[in-house]
Amino acid sequence: MNLSPLATLDLQRHGQLSTQKGNSLSVGRVQTPTVRLICENDLAIRGFMPQTYWKLQLEDRATGVLFSNKDKFSDSDEALATAKAFAEQSLVTAIEMKDHQRAAPPLFNLSDLQGVAAKRWQYESTKTEQIVEKLYLKKYLSYPRTDCRFITTDEFAYLKQYLNSYQEVIQCPFEPKQVQPREAYVDDQKVAKASHYALIPTENIPNLATLSQEERRIYEIVVRRTILMFAADCCYQTTSVQLENKGWTFQATGRHMIDLGWAGYSEQAVRKDVELPQYQVGQLVPTTVQVIEGVTKPPKRLTESQLISQVFPKYGLGTQATRGTIIQTIQKRGYVKKDRKTGQLFPTNKAYLLINYLIDNEFSSPETTGGWEVFLSQIGEGAIDPREFVDAIKDKLSSQIQAAKERGD
């Protein structure tokens, strides 16, 4: 008993779905909430109405440094009138300097890797999983279908032992600075609870020339992410300067890199330094007020990368082994189309037909499905009787069938 034939027959009975052979709807515990999220994102973009706003900013006339204020005006006349009342000098009311120390990114789980591969090379999630599986079978990478970002002290020990070899194979030389296990990466208890540790290289180091381009890309990115935990932290300093003018507060923030650390060996872009002049609290700064016009932007369209690395984990939808397949399935069944260049996901008319039919149905709710995943996990651990869960689902399905009958009467 499931909702697929119910949705198909009910919509066909009401003339909303063709009775042509093979023209049926599919309702899935994970796929339907996924389609709903994509439809909701599309509706938010379609319904977005851009609005013009105005903001004030101050420019230090001596240095050209800009100081911003977050408040927005919906009326240009009000913004201009406020700006006209400003004095020609602004008072430095606060200066705050902070030292920042950022550790390297966490180790990969499968979803993280799929998200990066989709964004960087437009790889479909199932393709990335297949590549990782090949590297696993060749004994170059650890077990792929893991949702854990931690390793145990045993894995840390062998990774440390083979660090030089990993550095040589991907040409990433640096002097290791973090040579003791850190809780951001090493946690025996979390690994025990997850059953599998993070996705990392094994002791077997390949000759990259024997790998395909796709295999080499995935292997190198996993190795790089792994060994960066041994690199020095990225250290930088920020300086925030606050100005006050006629009761309005403005701020400029400078940034000075002290030590790139791991960021110097990462493929991520490094933000440039922003140097500020030397200001003193109590100093009067000659400033010019500027009125800046802006327009609100619509929500960004969901991509496969975002679904895999952000949305699915947020709602607890699917598992590491099924998430890539879910995206592939909703495309094959005609609910979603994907832009091959950008990875953006667009719902079809068939998707809206299904979601509108199930709009008040908790079977299409991401939150409900996420809750079920928790129950299923507890069943697997023996904490919950599976019969109770199944009986509850049967009751809900029965009520949906009864509601459909009443609509047809």
Automatic annotation (TrEMBL):
This is DNA topoisomerase III. Keywords: DNA-binding, Isomerase, Topoisomerase. One of its GO terms (molecular function) is DNA topoisomerase type I (single strand cut, ATP-independent) activity. PROSITE patterns: TOPO_IA_1 (PS00396), TOPO_IA_2 (PS52039). Signal peptide: none annotated. Its EC number is 5.99.1.2. It is an enzyme of class 5 (isomerase). GO terms for cellular component: cytoplasmic replication fork. InterPro entries: Topo_IA, Topo_IA_AS, Topo_IA_cen, Topo_IA_cen_sub1, Topo_IA_cen_sub2, Topo_IA_cen_sub3, Topo_IA_core_domain, Topo_IA_DNA-bd_dom. Residues 1-401 form the Topo IA-type catalytic domain. The keyword DNA-binding applies. GO terms for biological process: DNA recombination; DNA repair; DNA topological change. Pfam families: Topoisom_bac.
